[in-house]
């Protein structure tokens, strides 16, 4: 089994990097905090006997040769976070992969397959509004055009990469082939495992996020001198859209829609706003439903624009297809869970993960551990030491079984 004390202390140690005033974590890609976190993870990987390097885009990769010349088993997750995020989202998956490899080394167990443990760059997409960056590169999906996306300060992904010493011109070298499968452990970020009273579960599939940015352009005018009937107020228009987005999403059983960020200019108490921008995150495990919801939202927004003579521009930020996890890997995960005498619970992931990028390239499997109260993307995010241990033991058992296939 794994050394849960070591795993737990590493979780706490990593959480100190980018710590916020209310005990959350801020680690946005290519920033100094996120680089410091990667350097700390690099140290853990070296302690686990892995050969460590960064690839051209900044993925941190800990490699272990196999006894035989076989395809590689990838284990990964991310250490970047959402604003004021939790200690476990992503980080637990990377640290668990390292802990499993270190425990195998200490027990003198050499695997047949080579293994790479990866801390993928920019899974969350917080800084550039474009997530899953590192896993896109490993899958061969990342393009130079993608690197032109800019953060709020106008810095492009390319410039941020160069600033941290990485090499965007060589992004194609990050692509990996000769891969057997991908395995990720992650916190559930929902309430299903907790409601069923189990610490660890098997993931059946992953809902695919669609991110849109809506720009509503009205006319900034005097709040006192402009009669109500002569205004082109983009904030009122946006508010009508946002209320309708909630209503439309609620009309489907599993769809979710979130307006997570909104900004307006110029922002004076006595000035009618001129421009409003907001983002929409749409998801459903069924792609056709998600896309139907998208077209309903677009139609409504355009209608509001026509009715109020206001310009509405909708930009797509990212569109990721939902993914089904491999039946074979699921069966192995379920067997490993049973061996811990934990009832087997299989569940879909509403949250997106790096595993989505490998759809159609090689099989993927995910292990979930329980989230207290289902809370995530919040400083209150918590997974217990016991549940983290259970997840790591399932990961270790699963890896040993898959290595025999
Ligand atoms: O947005 C997500 O689902 C994940 O946390 N990146
Ligand atoms: Mn997340
Ligand atoms: Mn995550």
Strand and helix layout:
Layout: H1 4-15, H2 32-47, E1 51-54, E2 60-64, E3 72-78, H3 91-106, E4 115-120, H4 133-139, H5 157-163, E5 179-187, H6 192-196, E6 200-206, E7 208-217, E8 221-222, H7 234-250, E9 256-258, E10 262-265, E11 271-272, E12 275-284, H8 287-308, E13 311-319, E14 323-324, H9 327-339, E15 346-349, E16 364-369, H10 385-403
Parallel strand pairs: 3-4, 3-5, 5-16, 6-15
Antiparallel strand pairs: 1-2, 2-4, 6-14, 6-16, 7-12, 7-13, 8-11, 9-12, 10-12
Helix pairs in contact: 1-3, 1-10, 2-3, 3-10, 7-8, 9-10
The structure holds (2S)-amino(hydroxy)ethanoic acid and manganese (II) ion (2 copies).
Please describe what this structure looks like.
This protein is α+β, with helices and mostly antiparallel strands and 405 residues long. It folds into two domains: 285 residues, Zn peptidases (Aminopeptidase, 3-Layer(aba) Sandwich); 112 residues, Alpha-Beta Plaits, CATH 3.30.70.360. Helices cover 33% and strands 22% of the residues. It has ten helices and 16 strands. The strands form three sheets. Strands 1, 2, 3, 4, 5, 6, 14, 15 and 16 form a nine-stranded mixed sheet that branches. Strands 7, 9, 10, 12 and 13 form a five-stranded antiparallel sheet that branches. It has a two-stranded antiparallel sheet with strand order 8-11. A hairpin with a 5-residue loop joins β1 and β2. It binds (2S)-amino(hydroxy)ethanoic acid (HGY) and manganese (II) ion (2 copies). The site of one manganese (II) ion has 5 residues, from loops.
